[in-house]
Amino acid sequence: MAKMLDVLGQLMRGEVPPPPIATLLGFSLASVEPGHAVVEFGVSLMDDLARRDFTINAIAYHPVQHAWRDPFKGADDLEHKLIRSVGDPNWRFQEDYLRILRALRFSARFEFKIHARTLEAAKANAQGLAQLSAERVRDEWFKGIMTAARVSKLLRLWMDVGAARIWLPEIRDAGSGMRDAWPPQQVVALAEDLPVRLVLVGDAFRPTVAGVDVEETIRSERVTRHVSAIAAIREVRNWVNVQQREAVAGVPGGVVVDGRDIGTVVFPDAPVKVFLTASPEERARRRLAQRGSRIDPAELAREAQALAARDHADSTRPVAPLRAAADAVRLDTTDLSLEQQADRVVALARERLPG
Prior knowledge:
The protein is of the alpha/beta class. About 50% of the residues lie in helices and about 10% in strands.
């Protein structure tokens, strides 16, 4: 946001030339073609701005006269980090109920507050969300969760306004576990619709959601604390196993795969199986380093506790529990560097595999 305001400031002061046609986060800039420096301001422009959903999207710039048009004080709302509808919020939302969800997305993405009247109108018109197509709501939801500074805020806004009641009825209680709130079939259906996939990039598989690489995201604490609950759902595990097998089947020459039930359930006939272990403290240190987080005693202890809790949950679950395969080679890596670990595994593979 600071960068956007800086660019706008440079344009207003004439320090940088405006592009022939441009949009800056929803800010309409009147355009001119080279050699035709004529821009018609007047009824058409004002009508266009008056039809915008929010004041921060209703600011226009004249690149020839170096003049701004801000009839709804969108610049003030930007400065105060406020989402406010253009004109009567009830009329604005009734023109297109999706604007309610857009307001929630902008608020969660930019950490802006929704103006009291706009928020009140959003709640009053929430029932109109039921008239929207599932495709439009789905796309808006995915945009929201992919761009939100905090997904928890986006979810709270959906619940507060009433959008979750209509489109996410499974979420009965924000404090309840995902396993209780979502039926297994719906979790699998969501994974298919997004979709969730393993994509081969170079010589490594990368997890993607809706085409976006989430390799780093899935290692975050926010994801880790929910993994065991989801992993204990039989239908989810079966779906994941199929995805992994199909991904590996398309790669000639074999692959190296890791996971908590890889050797016992997913690929029980793998010719080489290694069960890696390490002390809780060392695993916690590695996870924090992988995230780029600071490594201090308090954070290390917290992460080690979280990993231990997940180990316990995964090793005691009735579906595909965490355990070493009977024919797996155990390797304690606590005091081994990454290079030493790789050397040990490669040596074992050369010993076990022909050629």
